Amino acid sequence: MSIDKSYCGFIAIVGRPNVGKSTLLNKLLGQKISITSRKAQTTRHRIVGIHTEGAYQAIYVDTPGLHMEEKRAINRLMNKAASSSIGDVELVIFVVEGTRWTP
Q1: In DSSP terms, which residues pair with 91 in a beta bridge?
Q2: What is the pLDDT of residues 53-98, one digit of tens each?
Q3: Which stretches of the chain are DSSP H helices?
Q4: For residue 49, which of 40, 59, 57 has the smallest C-alpha distance?
Q5: What ranges do the domains of the chain cover?
Q6: Predicted pLDDT at 102
Q7: Which residues contact residue 80 at a Cβ distance below 8 angstroms, ignoring those fewer than 6 apart?
Q8: CA–CA separation, 49 vs 34, rounded Å?
Q9: CA neighbor of 10 nearest in space, from 97, 84, 95, 96
Q10: Domain 7-98 maps to which CATH number in 2.40.50.320, 3.40.50.300, 3.20.20.150, 3.90.400.10?
Q11: Which of 97, 22, 19 is nearest to 60 (CA)?
Q12: Measured torsion, CA atoms of residues 53, 59, 64, 68, in degrees rounded to the nearest 10
């Protein structure tokens, strides 16, 4: 009797709104799973995409953008969804927009 080993991990993709989190997920999976748009708050719920290769499986979690201002209820809800995803994964990919960096 042989037992095949398999490896699986959860990876959260987090960052501010409109930094390319959904685009990155689509590229990593090689297909369009998550909606992409120039409009902020396009992703309002966690989107899960799975990549399997041999005995290895990566489960990516695309999260809503993290908002600095929590005045609106929708921003608070999306921050909660993104924050709760961080605690449930083995790896976090934090995406930043390089064009807005300042020296």
Answers
A1: 11
A2: 999 999 999 988 776 666 777 666 666 666 666 778 899 999 988 7
A3: 21-29, 73-87
A4: 59
A5: 7-98
A6: 60
A7: none
A8: 9
A9: 84
A10: 3.40.50.300
A11: 22
A12: -100
Please state the pTM of the whole predicted model: 0.76
Residue 102 token pair: 């300042």
Count Cα atoms within 13 angstroms, Cβ side, for 53. 6
Place of tokens 């993709």: 13
For the record, the structure tokens of 48 come out as 């899960």
CB 10 within 8 A of CB 88: yes
Summarised one tens digit per residue, pLDDT across range 7-24 is 899 999 998 888 888 999
